[in-house]
Each structure stands twice: as C-alpha cells, then as structure tokens.
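Hello again,

I reread your note about wanting to compare the complex against the isolated chains. To keep things tidy I'm splitting this into two emails, and this first one only covers the full assembly. Below are the input lines as submitted, including protein chains and any nucleic acid or small-molecule components. They are followed by the predicted structure of everything together. The single-chain runs will come separately.
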Amino acid sequence: MTATSLKHPKHIHETTSLTRLGAEQLTLKHGKTSIIENLNVSLPEGKVTAIVGPNGCGKSTLLNGLSRVHSPSAGVVLLDGKDIHALPSKEVARRLALLPQDTLAPDGITIEELIRFGRHPHQSLLKQWAMDDQQAINYALNAADLEGLKDRLLDTLSGGQRQRAWIAMSIAQETPLLLLDEPTSALDLGHQIEVFELIRHLSRQGKTLAMVVHDLPSACRYSDHIIAMKKGEIITQGSPKEVMTKELVRELYGVECDLIPDPMTGSPILINMKRVRN
Amino acid sequence: MINQSLSITHPADTVSAPSGHYLLSLGRHMTILIEKHAIIRNIGLLILLSCACIATLAIGTMPISPKNVIAVLLGHGDAMSQFIVQDLRLPRLLAALFTGAAFSLAGCLMQTMARNRLATPGIIGIDNAAMAFAVSSVVGMGISLAPSVMALAGAATATALAFGLAGGSGTRGYRFIVAGIGIGAIAGAVTQLLLSQVSIDVANSAYPWTVGSLSARDPFMVNLLGAGIALCLIACLLFSTQFALMPFSDPVITGLGANIKHIRILALILCVTLTGLAVAVAGPVGLVALVGPEIARVLARYRGIPLVSSALTGALVMTLADLFGRTVLSPIELPVGIVTAVVGGPYLIWILVRRTSRTSL
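Full-complex prediction:
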C-alpha cells in the first residue's frame, strides 16, 4: 500500500507531505446542526497528532468523521486516496483502528478475549484462527504489558488497565493508523502517563496516530503535531513548539497564562492561569 | 459435532487454539474455532431434552413404558403404542420443541441486539400483534390456514412499527421497548375487541390463539416452523462472528469493520420469522423467550451469546411446561401458555428485582 499525498490548502503549513488519512471539504452534522463545515485536514504520516480545543469545538466529531463512524453530509474522507465510505468496511478496519470514548464490551469478557476481537477484520467464517492471529495477540499483550492479566475479566480491572486492554485490542488489529478519542479522560495521572507512553511507543513502531486530548501540556509533550480547533474550524496546526502560544490558549479557552519550557523536555508548560472573557 | 475426518490440532510451536477452544482445521487454510464449554453445555442440554421427549411420549392417560417409546421411535412396537406415540403424542411434542426453540432463539437475538434482557419479542408486542392478526382472520374468515400467514404479517408489522417509532435510537435503549409495549397493548386490546364482537362459537375457535396452546396444531405449520428454525439456526451459525459483536458499542463495531445496520436488520428478520411462525403454531407463549435465554446464559456463565443453547433450553422449557400442563390436573388440560405464564411471571419479577453487578438490565 503506498501512501498518497493529498492537496493541502495553502493556509495550512505542513510538516510532511505524506498522508494516508485526511478529509476534503468535510461537512459533518448532528441532525440539522452543522458541527464542522468545509474542513480540510490531513494527518501527517508516522506521527502522533493531537486534536485540541474547547468543549463542543467538534474535535470528537472530526475524529468520528475520519473513522467513518459519522457519515459526512458533504465532502469526503480519504483513506490512501480513496473515499473511506466507498471502501469495504472490513478493509478499512485492516488499515484504520479506532478507540472511541464510548467503549462498551460484552459482559464477562476477559482481556484476551477482548483483544481477540481486534482480529475480526482479518478473520472470516472459514478462517477463524491462524498463526498471524496468534502472533498479533501475543504482540498486543506484550506491547500493552498485559501478559500477566490476560485471563482477568475486563470489569475487574482498574481504569488504566482497562484502557490499555482496549488499546491492545486496536494493536491486535494491526493497522497502520490508530485514532483515539480522549484516551486518558477518565484516568488518574499515573494511568494517563502510562497510556501516553504506550501511544509514543506505538508511534516509534511506525504507526500514524491521532488523538483527541483535553490536557494541553500532555498534548504538547506526547504529540508531534497539534491541530487546534474552535467552533468547527481548524485555527492553527503544526508542531507543539510552533503552535503553542499564550494567544492560542487565550483564543481557545479564554484563559490568560504564561508558557515556560519544561526544564527536562523543553515542551511548553502553562503557568499562572487565569480565566478571562474573550 | 466433531467429525472423524476433522483433525484437532494442538502442536506446541505451530498454531494453538486460544484457551477454552478447539481448533478445527478443515484443509490448509480453513479453520474454525469451537468453544469447549459450548460443546459440553449443548450435549448436556441435548441429553436432558431427549429424556424430556421420551417422558412426554410415555406419560399420558394411556402410559407407555420408555422402552416401548424407544421401540416405536425405532420403527417397532405394537400397533396401539405406535398409534398413541406417533399419531397422538409426537406431533404435539414436535410443536412444543419447535415453538420453544423458536421463541427462545428469537428472544436471545433480540435481547442481545437491544442490549436489554427485557427486550423479548413478547414484550416488544410481536406476539400480541401476531395474535391480533391471527384472531382477526379467524373471526373474519373462519378458516385455519390464513391465521398462520396473518400471524407472520402481524409479527412483521409490530416490529416495523416499534423500529419506526423508536426513531434514530434504533433498537438500543428504552424507546424501542416502550414503543413495543404500546404496540403490544394496542394489539391485545384489538384482540379482545374482536372476540367480544362475535358469536361465542367463533370466539371459541379463536380462543386457542389467545392463550397459547399446543393441542391439535396444524401439522403443515409445525413442519414449516421446523424448517424455519433449521434455516434460522444455520443463519445464526453463519453470522455468529458478527452477532458476537452486537454487545459492543456502535463505534467499536464500526471500528472492527462490521456493518451494524446489516447485522441488526438480519437479527430482526430472524426474530420476526421465528416469532411469527411460532405464534402461528402455538399462539403467544412469549415468556419462553424470557426464560429460555436466561437459563442458557446462566449455563454459559454469562459469556458469549448462547444462541444454540437458547434454542435448546427453550425447547426444553416448552416441552416440560406442556408435559406439566397435560398431567398435573389430568384429565383437565392446562394450555401451555398458562403454565409458562405461571412460571415465567414470577421469574420476570425476580429478574427485575435481582440486580447483580454482572447482569445489567
């Protein structure tokens, strides 16, 4: 599969010309309300993209649009240059995995069983289990550090372990692309870092990832590319250092702050935050 | 069933089945996973069901020893036993087996699809609508074949209405159930109204449709139901890997490359076919759809979607309920629908009251 480059609108300065997943003139509606209109976006290949913005800015809707969960009212989502809705769903699932916010699993399912479901797009009625399934599951268990927990029931795990199990399921899907919708929103600090480090690890393995994140410092620290959204529009995008400014924080959240570089990593930290009216 | 020609593979450094499964290799590239627990469970249920069948064929006003029953089934036995077993009791037993399996399988599918243990065809109003249509044809035309067709039409109408009234939320959530309850109530009222408007003879001939009974069923419909169940079970097995995804949330299902709409429409078609045919044979005995799948889930330790086990438990419950209704107040016969209601009613209350951490309503 070769990556296809998309035409990018001029006002967006790109870090890379390669992309496998993107959208052109995308309009997404909830009922009759437009959440996103005529949006052009593309995910830089092999990088971690963080989508940030205030509540209701359309970032989750965008992620759902890109992952074909939400069908566009206009425009097109392109996966490897083809309309994602025109491709067979199973084929899309072999290239693109999704970890939604709304993860509901069958009762009484173990970690290993959950991860086995990640193999669904690679299986069929008469090909229910093969060597590659076994290897993918072992790899996923190992990558998410769940080998010791594989026979535990999903309901009995802590929030962080559960989230790791869901990520492991998408790892077992063996897709070059992985989209995550607020993967750390319900987790405590330790578990958040655990999940972000797993995401970085996957990126080093060559995966292209995109995630919706609420926490700006984490977005800066764990991503290569930031897409900042407000009212359904992308107001800026680029590397965290280029993009993250006081002005952006003020515009997005109505918060006045100062930015200082993290003495260890150099990524921006927000201090001295105050709510202001825009 | 594991055939001799299929090999079960367990080598150490090649592919090994995931824990709790048998891996059947059919040729080089074809592999099928079978859950060990399901095999044990279903064989156990089949044995129980066989015992219940022999008991049903043996017990009655004219008792026949189990040995003689088996002899008759194998084509031997005296003429009297042959007549009683084959001509009197066997058709009724088949009707019980088929309707029980159909109601229970439909119940399991619909509960899984709606993610709600209350969502059985009976509660969604499919039974009642099928009954109302059937009664209206008995009352209107007074012939015996049309009610069966009408029952199917009624089942389809109720499902379409419930689905339509549920709007965007589809089969998930309470809207679908509440809409269905309303449709069921209306259909029930229509039935009562029709029965109150006709002469007592016509009302009497329509009566079996309203309580659920297995006596003197139309053999053509019983055979049709048997064929319908066989086809629906085959469909369930063919689509088992997709049905297994139904308990996940919608975005997860889409993310795994399955088409939720197709899965749901297929499950609904199976539910309507099974329920419509079963009501056409026995009338509304819908509580089996609540009890059967629940027993199957307990036996499956609340794991997976026990479709085959549900069909077996449903057949077992119906057979036992009919046997009970036939014998307990003999020579008076209790319609099977009344027996299942007496057993199923308290059971329904019990599942509503009992809420454990594992079983969400």
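For quick reference: Residues 189-204 of chain A form the longest helix (16 residues).

B.
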